[in-house]
Design goal:
By secondary structure, this protein is of the alpha/beta class. The protein folds into two domains: 168 residues, Rossmann fold, CATH 3.40.50; 192 residues, Up-down Bundle (Dehydroquinate synthase-like, alpha domain). The chain contains 13 helices and eleven strands. The strands form three sheets. Strands 1-2-9-6-5-3-4 form a seven-stranded mixed beta sheet, sandwiched between helices. A two-stranded antiparallel sheet has the order 7-8. It has a two-stranded antiparallel ribbon with strand order 10-11. The longest helix is centred in the middle third of the chain and has 21 residues. The structure holds nicotinamide-adenine-dinucleotide and glycine (GLY). Nicotinamide-adenine-dinucleotide binds next to helix 2, helix 4, helix 5 and helix 6.
Length: 370
Amino acid sequence: MSDNFPIIVKVPLGSRSYDIVIGPGLLVDLGHWLDPVIGDGKVHIVTDETVFDLYKSRLYALERAISVTVLPVGEAQKSFETLQQVLDDMFEQGLDRNDTLLAFGGGVIGDLTGFAASVYKRGCQFVQVPTTLLAQVDSSVGGKTAINVPAGKNLVGAFYQPKIVIADVDVLSTLPDRELKAGYAEVLKYGLLGDIEFFNWLEDQGENVLALNSEALSQAVATSCRTKANIVAADERERGQRALLNLGHTFGHALEAEAGYGSDLLHGEAVSAGMAMAFEFSVRQGLCDENASDQIKTHLSKTGLTSISDVSQWLRDPDRLLKHMMQDKKNEGGALTLILARAIGDAFIDKGVDQTEVKTYLAHLAKTYA
Ligand code: NAD
Ligand code: GLY
């Protein structure tokens, strides 16, 4: 491992503070990172079939008592049924609160496992070992855990922080390219919402990140995690500024709802197009210079990310899209909240967006991309 690695980013939350350890080669000696943090209890690992097949030898190399729940792949696992299965497996193993539940996988595994940890005997130790880029820069950090219910995605859950996050960038080499790009959209988000220098760095280094250059990838994950850690430290329960992390997500969720939350449109792909829409809408509102929006579109095209034209099939019905947007958790008292921007690196929360203006914009998109 080079002298520059690992990079350690702290999430400062008082007695619940923890480290995010980032770099290549960390799975080779997972115990080295885990042991000082979790003590010598048992470890129960939750993972999915794909990741388990690829990395089981690494997991079994842990020199301690481990047990494993291996789940099918996919968003459908964020359910009450699977939560029950994980809890049953934990009871069967006789785990107590000082034992550890370890999430080894992408955001689906992390969200479900974190929620299971939060309710098992009113809360047991929890560790995140994220294996997708999206999970390394977003879902494993900050303590949001959840499952889906018929009323909507992520509507049942808890804020429950892990004891440590271990992000080995080497595991991203087996990630399908589409998933890698979906994760890169969340990396780009951190530049767009509050850090123009990071955006400029991505303009220069983005292609190296996507080519899995260890140095560039580790720096990109670390900068993303640093931004998220600062926002979470200031507003853990999303009473205010944490909502900035939803840049592009309200437009994106509406697209995901239209696409049916399946593999036709991944979450990160929807966020990628959604961020372009948030900037385009900000330009139409006279908030932001058109150059900023054009620069983002050029970056999406240069890095092969999802742009607005790629989601045209889900832009056909402006009324339905607006209806989806009105169901967003950020909205209060019937008013539409959106994350808009004054410039690249200068996003803000607008709690009273004019719905008619949004509908006019959505109708414009439907016509443009028909
Ligand atoms: P995912 O967990 O479904 O993983 C995507 C796919 O990649 C799966 O097929 C998985 O098997 C595969 N995979 C994972 N790691 C791999 C590897 N190293 N090599 C090969 N294949 C690998 O999806 P995701 O994009 O990681 O996460 C999406 C979920 O995250 C959604 O449920 C979303 O709601 C949630 N999320 C949560 C937060 C949060 O703050 N808690 C933030 C963003 C997203
Ligand atoms: N992914 C948004 C958040 O963690 O708040």
